[in-house]
Amino acid sequence: MNQIKVFAPATVANVSCGYDAMGFALSELGDEMVFTKTSDQEVRIIDIQGADLPYDADKNVVGVVAQLMLKESNSEFGLDIKIRKNFKPGSGLGSSAASAAGTAYAVNQLLDLKYDHLQLTKFAMQGEVAACGSAIADNVAACIYGGFVLVRSYDPLDIVSIPTPSELVATVIHPQIEIKTEDARKVVPQDIPVKTAIAQWANVGGLISGLHASDFELIGRSLHDYVAEPTRKKLIPHFDKVKTAATNAGALGVGISGSGPSIFALSKGMFAAKQVAEAMNGVYENTGIDYAIYVSNISKSGAREL
Ligand code: ADP
User: Fold this and answer.
1) How many domains would you assign to the chain?
2) What residue owns the CA closest to ligand 1's atom 26?
3) What are the beta bridge partners of residue 71?
4) Which of 179, 171, 184, 180 is nearest to 283 (CA)?
5) Is pTM, for the whole model, over 0.90?
6) Is the same domain home to 175 and 290?
7) pLDDT interval class at 182 (50, 70, 90)
């Protein structure tokens, strides 16, 4: 194999109650990248479409992950890489994670390195270090494994793949405002009362159980976040209105995607998910804020060859 074209999905991290521990992948939104083997051991980013990102391989997460994997595997090859970003960095939809995880997947395939999902997640996490300073796993793991994932532990890294009911459909609105990751982190309380923790982990249990059993009512009852959302939502214009409108339109649950500003909803079936999209649109259309709305199935396979 001399060349591979891959699709790396956008991901929704946190999933309300699963703050910093859960994520899922979208099947119809993501990065596309083409990797071509070269003989000079260099990693070169030769084209970037759709976003203003560094071509310097040490600064772009794609270059960081590719160089790391070539070094670890003592590869004699180099890579020329083309990147197409189909959604914006800083959206709360795992832009850097899609690039990092897609690269880990592609390099593994192209060079026949035989790393498993967990090892690929570890490589991709080094891309997250380059993007935001910490080795966060929820977006990259969702992007590599597909479907819903639980980051059960960081030390040792333990990723649990959770079954995804095929009727579950996501609706996402991305208000195109900037929220600094630093600010989104600062507003989340460092300590919470045990009472709050109990409510949160009871809902995580409910969500996981609902996903296993395809119990949509239980999934809906469990999609509540008592830890990050109460303070974080203040950074997102019209969050409560979007949540109410989407819920009234039939969403099972609504929450902040990653650290925002995107807001996600989960619905049973495509028809309901489109109704939710209409409702979200109704809230934002006269606000003067630019936004994009996506309706997507949940990606079952994660990053894949095109
Ligand atoms: P979000 O998860 O909110 O979509 P990210 O955490 O992915 O946003 O943040 C993107 C940051 O990562 C930006 O500062 C961007 O410059 C940096 N970055 C470096 N390489 C890439 C890449 N290939 N794709 C996306 N972002 C990248």
Assistant:
1) 2
2) 96
3) none
4) 171
5) yes
6) yes
7) confident
